[in-house]
Amino acid sequence: MVVLTVRSAHKRRYFVLFLTIAGFIIFRHMGTQRGRVQVVRRVGLSVNSSQFNLEGEPFRILGGSVHYFRVPRAYWKDRLMKMKACGINTLTTYVPWSLHEPERGSFQFRGQLDLEAFLQLAEELGLWVILRPGPYVCSELDLGGLPSWLLRDEQMKVRTTYPGFTEAVNVFFNKLIPKVVPFQFKKGGPIIAVQVENEYGSFAEDANYMPFIKEALESRGISELLLTCDNHDGLMNGGLSGVLRTINFQKLNHNDIKQLEAVQPKSPTLVMEYWTGWFDGWGDLHHVFPAEDMIAVVREILRRGMSINLYMFHGGTNFGFMNGAADNPSYKPLITSYDYDAPLSEAGDYTPKYHLLRDLFSHYQSVKLPDMPVLHAKDRYEAAIMFQHLSLWDVLPFTHTPFKTQTPVNMENLPVNNGNGQSYGYTLYETTITSGGSLRSGNNVRDRALVFVDRSFIGVFEFKTLELAVPDGKGERTLSLLVENCGRVNYGKALDSQRKGLVGDILLNNSPLRNFVIRSLDLTPSFIESLYRAPWKSLPHKPSFPGFFLGRMFVNGYPSDTFIKLPGWSKGVVFINGQNLGRYWHIGPQQTLYLPGPFLNSGINEVIVFEETEADYKVHFEDTPDLGMTVDVQ
Ligand code: GLA
């Protein structure tokens, strides 16, 4: 320690002043962000030879994707430490606009969506970051991560320079980008590269769009290496001048790699998305990609000197209603689990892929890999017995104010949520009919509707069921359609037509129905909370469906992870302590829902199930997941 003695008071004052000014200058130069000291570095990740360079040294990206919004925050550290222990040096994550700006101009960056905390954690653990801020991200998210309120505009053309889209992007980026700028490498942070949009080559609707996004990033202070990524379909049309092109695939496609190397001969090759597994749709089998096949390709990628990012390293869960849908060859909503058959399972367990990768990556490290963190316990809990019930019709007073309209209005254009429409969940459309006959959906039901006459169930409209018979009856009767948004398509050219609810006329005996009363049931946490004031009744012998079922589960001691199983139930949504865990559906493939320990209390936990058609009144909690019968990815 240096002890300074300044004798005269005069000199002491000057000395204090000198220290204050010097301190201020040093502090300004370093800058601080959320308590972190920023070091200034001059050169970031560079690509001027056939390899990457970082901090003046050759650098190979061994990356892995983990999405903060798909992993309970309490487990972020666990998952990232497991990533480190696997030999991965770079974390990659998307930023889901739809979750961060659920209503236009109203932003959420706290708790589960605290991106800055996630970046900070990566930094603390010594992981570099490649940030993928979209604004479109695909990622099996509803509308590819775009907010559904964009679709209120009938003329909307997402992923183009249509002013209604670019203006909204600008507002979002004005909020987002300043948050991430201080985390860039040259400012002392972990972000070594930023991706411009996502696989635009396979969309390619507007030549001015990618330059707009690039400029939108740069003008707001993004100064690290920029990159684009494309899959086989978009490789030819992808890319942007002055931006590194990268490639996405699962099986080695030598032609694609050659093609990429031909357009960028003096650049390193990065497989931005090496698909370690795949996602599942409802009614499908569970996709798996054999570990031996995966490791053979990863080994070859590394042998060729290429860099790689594992998409996903750990998939996590589509909690709530965040899942997207596929539309090729036809519409198919995606399941709640985003396990992805990734190296780390949905619940954070090591898989054979993890061990193979760790072994392989250990040969590419100069130091010994950290020990593998211990696993979290999984528990089987006593089943919760549902003892209270509310029918759908009982909860109507707790929904938004009903909206009356001559013709049907789609979800996004309903006058709810401060003028942002309804994004997710169910919408009830009701009108009066005076006859029976043939009811036709005209393919205007998005995506599925349970249909009732005077509250008696008469059938389901789906993409394949376009006609139902309405039984004859006397006088005026109420026809109700409970329409569910099962997930908006997240990939392909059909993004602008992803409006949900009723998107056109429903015909009864060829006449369009009129005079609707519409209620939004977006099943938000605040709606579920409001149900505590609802007139719950003891479970009747024959409860009516759809309905809400309430029970309690008891956790003795510290809560562990568990897996919810609902044998005898059909289709619905599970809420634990008010938190939406996501949808279940007996058609599978997934047979259990992941319930992370941090969502549980020690002691009593409230379980609410919204079930559409039939129930067994018992919710089971198993200690192992069941994602269904498997099929190899083709
Ligand atoms: C593409 C997208 C990702 C994801 C994968 C499939 O590569 O870029 O967001 O949708 O496909 O999982």
Q: Between the first and last Cα atoms, what is the distance in angstroms?
A: 66 Å
Shape label: globular
Number of helices: 11
Rg, alpha carbons: 27 Å
Q: Please indicate the count of domains.
A: 3
Under the CATH scheme, the architecture of the largest domain is Alpha-Beta Barrel
Ligands bound to this protein structure: alpha-D-galactopyranose
**CATH homology-level superfamily of the largest domain:** Glycosidases
Largest sheet, in brief, is:
9 strands, antiparallel
Beta-strand residue fraction = 25-35%
Total count of strands: 37
Class computed from helices, strands and strand pairing: alpha+beta
Helix content: 10-25%
Mean pLDDT: 94
Description of the structure:
- The protein has 634 residues and is α+β, with helices and mostly antiparallel strands.
- The protein folds into three domains: 43-364, Glycosidases (TIM Barrel, Alpha-Beta Barrel), CATH 3.20.20.80; 384-390 and 526-632, Galactose-binding domain-like (Jelly Rolls); 401-521, Sandwich (Jelly Rolls).
- The strands form nine sheets. Strands 16, 29, 30, 31, 32, 33, 34, 35 and 36 form a nine-stranded antiparallel sheet that branches. The protein has an eight-stranded parallel β-barrel with strand order 5-6-7-8-9-10-11-13, surrounded by four helices.
- Helix 8 packs parallel to helix 9 (352-362).
- The N and C termini lie far apart (66 Å).
- Residues 1-9 and 19-32 have low confidence and may be disordered.
- Keywords: Glycosidase, Hydrolase, Membrane, Transmembrane, Transmembrane helix.
- Belongs to the glycosyl hydrolase 35 family.
